[in-house]
Amino acid sequence: MTFSDEGDDHSVYYGQGGLIRGNKIAETPVRGATAGGNSNSRKRRRVSFSHFASYAAIPVTAKHHLELAQGDRAYLRTTIKFVDGPEKDVSMPDGGCTMTGEVEIRVGTNDTAPLFWDAGEVSFGDEICRPQSSLTKKPRLYVKAPNTFRLAVGHKIGIAVYRTFDITHEDAGAPISVRLEDVYGPKHQVCIYTGGVTEVSEQSETFCHSINTFEGCSGAVIFLLDQDQEDAPEGVADGMAVGIHVGGLDITNNLGFMLK
Q: Which pTM was predicted?
């Protein structure tokens, strides 16, 4: 996602985001005759992307991307881009917000103080309900895990990151000797980074994870992996969205907010 302040300084900030699938708004069209005119043939025509079923699409990202920075007017424009298409405008009501409140993400002990983070880090945009839009097509959308699912330590998770910007060793917190492209992949290509859940807060609002990230990954949708996964309850499938990555905590832990 790109967040731009179209005021005097034209500030531009890059992050991640995604689209959550809502109710179906258009069926997949029935395919016509197959090759050779034989409707029973196994050889079928390739369906164009525009012919996929359409669903309401709900944009989501980390709320801090939308916060009004000191000296800025407001982030007036938010766009989302997929690797095979142009940027598309999405409406984010939190644009220009101020982060308020805190949530405890780790309780204190006799030796350590409790750890807090800005509350309400998951920001949803206005629902997109245009069947003709490429943003409402099924392959673009994450399916949210049902509310009965409980994320737990040990669950294997991942994020898909697409970037059009360069990253630095400082962004990644990596030694200068590390070849960043070997670790994070190239620009203009979707890269999947994986890890596991390492902690879940007592209120089950946040969780820590071990996905290797860099500055610019926040806002990415966190989803369940399809390998080395503990048994999931009925109705929960790999690829389902469970959270939003919001930032790094220390050298081994990053933070995610539950997707509710």
A: 0.87
